[in-house]
Amino acid sequence: MSTQRLAELEEVIGEVAASYGAGRLIDSLSTAQLPNKRQVIDALNHLKAVMYLGYYATGELHEQKLRHAVSAHLYPAYEILVEQIRRAVSYEGFRSSSVPRDADWPAAATVEFLRKVPRIRGLLAKDVLAAFHGDPAANGVEEVIFSYPSIEAITVHRIAHELQLQGVPMLPRIMSEHAHSISGIDIHPGARVGESFFVDHGTGVVIGETTIIGDHVKIYQGVTLGALSLERDPEMGRGTKRHPTIEDHVTIYAGATILGGETVIGAHSVIGGNVWLVESVPPHSRITSETHGVRGHVTTSA
Fold first, then answer.
1. Main-chain dihedrals φ then ψ at residue 261, nearest 5 degrees
2. Would the pTM count as exceeding 0.85?
3. Which long-range contacts (CB under 8 A, 24 or more apart) does 155-160 make?
4. HSE of 124 in the Cβ direction (CA atoms, 13 Å)?
5. Residue 297 lies in a domain
6. Same domain, 108 and 145
7. CA-CA distance, 270 to 250, in Å (whole number)?
8. pLDDT in tens, 218-256
9. Which residues constitute the domain of residue 76?
10. Is residue 172 located within the same domain as residue 211?
C-alpha cells in the first residue's frame, strides 16, 4: 500500500470511528457486552451434531466412544452458551432496567436446557419420519437429515424454543434467523410446534411468534401463519395471541395465508393453495380458493 493510500485509509478509519459518537442505537459501545453471533452459531452447530450424532461422527460409535463423542460437543456448547447467555442477560438488564438475574443463572439455565436434549431428540426423530413418509421423493432417512430444509429449520427451532422457554434473551432469535437464512423457513422461537411436523419444500414459509401448531401437521412452501397488521401497542403484553392455531392432522398447501390470533384451523382440515383466511374453520373442513383466491370456500365432511 502506498503512503498516500495509507494516509487516506487512516483518515477514513478516523471518520468511521468518529461516527460512533453520534449516540445512535446501533453504536452500543459501553452499554453492555452483546452476544457474539458467530459464537452463538458455533454453539448451535455443536448442539445439532449431538441431535444427529451418528450422522456427524467419523468413526464407529460404541458405548465408550459415544459418551466421548457427546462430551466433545456438549462441553464446548456449555461454555459458549453460558458466556453468551451472560452477555444477553447483561444487555437485557441494561435495556429494560429489569431486576438482574443471579450471577449463576446463565450456567443454571444452560444445564437445565441441556437436560432437555434427549426429549428434543425424541421430537426430532418424529419430525424426520414425518418428512420421510410425507415426501414420496425421499430416498431415505439419511437424505432427509442431510439435505431437507425442513429438518434444518425444525431442528434449530426446537433448540431455540427450549431456550426461549428458559427465558434466555436474544440467543433464540439469533438462532432462528440463522436457520431462516439457510433454509428459507422463518419460524419464530416462540411458536409452539407439535410432534411430527413437516414443511415440504419450505421456501417462503413464515410462522409467527404466538402460533400454535398441533401434531402431524404438514405445510407447503409459501405458507404464512401470521398476524393481522396492527400498530405496535405498548399496552399489548409480550406473548399476546396474534397468530393462528393449527390443530392436529392439518395440511396447508402452497401460498396459503392464515392470519389472526383468534383464527383456529380445526383438526383434519385441508387448506388449499393461495387461500386467504382470517376466520376459524371447523374440523374436517376443506378450504378452496375462489377465482381470485381472496377468500376461502368451506366444505365439511362428516
1. -70, -20
2. yes
3. 155/48, 155/51, 155/52, 155/124, 155/127, 155/179, 156/44, 156/48, 157/187, 157/189, 157/191, 157/193, 158/120, 158/123, 158/124, 158/127, 158/193, 159/44, 159/47, 159/48, 159/51, 159/120, 160/189
4. 26
5. yes
6. yes
7. 6
8. 999 999 999 997 665 655 556 689 999 999 999 999 999
9. 27-185
10. no
